[in-house]
Automatic annotation (TrEMBL):
Keywords: FAD, Flavoprotein. Residues 188-337 form the RsdA/BaiN/AoA(So)-like insert domain. NCBIfam families: aminoacetone oxidase family FAD-binding enzyme. It comes from the Bacteria. Residues 5-390 form the RsdA/BaiN/AoA(So)-like Rossmann fold-like domain. This is NAD(P)/FAD-dependent oxidoreductase. InterPro entries: BaiN-like (IPR004792), BaiN-like_dom_sf (IPR023166), FAD/NAD-bd_sf (IPR036188), RsdA/BaiN/AoA(So)-like_dom (IPR055178), RsdA/BaiN/AoA(So)_Rossmann (IPR057661). Its cofactor is FAD. PANTHER family: OS12G0638800 PROTEIN.
Length: 392
């Protein structure tokens, strides 16, 4: 039986950060992961360049049943703190847009940095290892893995959410929470493309590959970023962002011309060149393929001089306030993150320890804290991992 101070399950972003900090404090730390390689999600993130944080990270960038839960950890380990580690390791990086920081070369740089820090701090990593039993003992926990029996004073669950199962994602964290009677906010796929049926699906299919700058809204929440038509529906950053807020059965609103009021543009064109066709003016506001298809779909055509304000207003609404109701999302297969998870009311926001189960901790994506697109989810993994590593 091996004795440990801290057993961390999950060698992803949060688990590795926690292991580094705990090992630096002299704890005997073992991180285990059932995958063959550590941190596979870091490797594929940001198109292979890892959007590792965001310069403008604040608690407002996170969704949770308790929006204040993330404040303490984000304040104690900030985006600048992580950036300092990146710079100390001389990893070249750049800001892409909206404060999003990416590696210049490869996401592997971030993984190598974390593994290097872990090994220097004296923490151990064991891959292809999974937990078959986890029981509370007199002081700490007894853990059975596929290799051995372990005794650990503290166990940290850092197994992430179930998105992208083929990358090793699992619902293990939720199973452990249930085993110890902790509440779970129902999880669902987020930062995920939206799917449509019938005419909207056909329209999206015909437009597959077209992208446009759009303002996409659900209720009072809006995101202005790229929108991409796909064979199944809509994707692109603005759609992924709104997917975290969208509720089933309700429409989203898409403004395809966020810098221009389309109705005003049509009216001005009618005064200046009344013989022009509405479709031609549409082509000045939108990419040609999109203008063509929307003109067919919504009957947006005819000589401007012959069209009343009422008709032009309706045409403008179709462009600036297009309402469409998704039938669903592409689900965990392509979702970047999972909404919901271990209810924050069960955890200390300072240490991430479960109040009902002393010695048991949950960090990273497995917790009901989900960031916007743009480096915020990794920052949550770093901040929650760091806070827990200081306490465990
Ligand atoms: P993470 O999923 O990283 O790690 C969990 C670990 O636990 C994995 O190594 C897994 O193998 C292991 N595990 C799971 N079940 C286990 C079990 N039963 N036993 C043992 N081990 C187990 N975010 C961002 O900020 N910027 C970005 O650029 C991107 N890009 C991106 C692209 C894609 C395609 C995806 C899917 C996701 C992103 N994300 C992102 C989100 C980001 O990857 C995610 O929020 C973090 O990886 C979460 O970190 P965790 O450490 O909590 O889980």
């Amino acid at each position: 039986m091996r004795d440990l101070d801290v057993l961390i399950v999950g060698a992803g972003a949060a688990g590795l950060m926690c292991a580094i900090e705990a090992a630096k404090r002299g704890r005997r730390v073992l991180v285990i992961d059932h995958a063959r390689k550590a941190a596979e999600k870091i490797r594929i993130s940001g198109g292979g360049r890892c959007n590792f944080t965001n310069l403008h990270c604040t608690p407002a960038n996170y969704l949770s049943q308790n929006p204040r839960f993330c404040v303490s950890a984000l304040k104690r380990y900030t985006q600048q703190d992580f950036l300092q580690m990146v710079e100390r390791h001389r990893i070249p990086w750049h800001e892409k847009t909206l404060g999003q920081l990416f590696c210049d070369d490869s996401a592997q740089n971030i993984i190598d940095m974390l593994l290097d820090e872990l090994s220097k701090a004296g923490g151990k990593l064991q891959l292809e290892t999974s937990v078959s039993a986890l029981e509370k003992a007199d002081s700490g926990f007894q853990v059975k893995t596929n290799h051995e029996q372990l005794r650990a004073k503290a166990v940290v669950i850092a197994t992430g959410g179930p998105s992208i199962p083929k990358m090793g994602a699992s619902g293990f964290g939720y199973d452990v929470a249930r085993q110890f009677g902790l509440d779970i906010v129902p999880p669902r796929a987020a930062l995920v493309p939206l799917t449509f049926s019938d005419t909207n699906k056909d329209l999206c299919k015909r437009l597959a590959g077209v992208s446009v700058d759009a303002l996409v809204s659900f209720g009072k929440t809006s995101f202005r970023e790229g929108l991409l038509f796909t064979h199944r529906g809509l994707s692109g950053p603005s759609i992924l962002q709104i997917s975290s807020y969208w509720q089933e059965g309700k429409p989203i609103t898409v403004d395809l011309s966020p810098t221009q009021d389309a109705f005003e543009a049509f009216r001005t064109a009618r005064t200046e060149s009344p013989k022009q066709d509405l479709k031609t003016v549409l082509g000045q506001l939108l990419p040609n393929r999109l203008a063509d298809e929307l003109s067919k779909e919504f009957g947006l055509k005819g000589r401007l001089a012959d069209l009343s304000d009422k008709v032009l207003r309706r045409a403008g609404e179709a462009i600036n306030r297009w309402q469409l109701t998704p039938v669903g999302t592409e689900g965990y297969r392509t979702a970047e993150v999972t909404l919901g998870g271990v209810n924050t009311k069960e955890l200390s926001s300072k240490t991430f320890e479960a109040s009902k189960v002393p010695g048991l901790y949950f960090i990273g994506e497995v917790v009901d804290v989900t960031g916007h697109l743009g480096g915020f989810n990794f920052q949550w993994a770093w901040s929650s991992g760091h806070a827990c590593g200081q306490a465990v």
